[in-house]
Amino acid sequence: MRIVLVGPPGAGKGTQAAYLAKNLAIPHISTGDLFRANISQGTPLGREAKSYMDAGNLVPDSVTIAMAEDRMEQPDAANGFLLDGFPRNLGQAKALDEYLKDKNLTLDAVLDLEVPEDEVVKRIAGRRICRNDSGHVFHAEYNKPETEGVCDVCGGELYQRDDDREETVRKRLEVYHTETEPIIDYYKAQDLVVTLLAMGKVDEVTKRAMAALPSRDA
User: Fold this and answer.
1) What 3-state DSSP class applies to 56?
2) Is 13 a catalytic residue?
């Protein structure tokens, strides 16, 4: 099964992607993981991406697309994959279509995780991270530490990352609406979109997602 996972920041894409990939026995292909792997391994694409990042520039779509295509060529993706964070705009979506067409393959579904905007802000802006190397994560509302501002595990100071602040989250949402949301209509025209309300416990959302996906025998 070949699936694209979309949704705003804070919708739980990474968490759901990991569970769904395991249940479907297909690799979870995350844009973030692709960049980290290529850069750490010093691949030509990784070196090219790093040169843009070091200069404070956005990595061009061509590099991201090439990384994704290279990953989809790997043996473990022969029977399917779950794409998380790619495509993130119309240009990447069209490039993915061309790649699949050349391979005589098609997408089975585009899973659109929907979360109310206020909930997204609450989820992200409430995150508190431990300053120590442990990196333990708490939440001001959903997973409070026993002592405010102190990590339950190691006693380290908890802090709010700059990109988790409300004003930054709302800017990230604006970028999502402008750049990524248009691919939902693009895929709706292909009758591929499966819309899922991503609220509730993680396992409940996963069960709803599995039930909503087309049958693998179809």
Assistant:
1) coil
2) yes
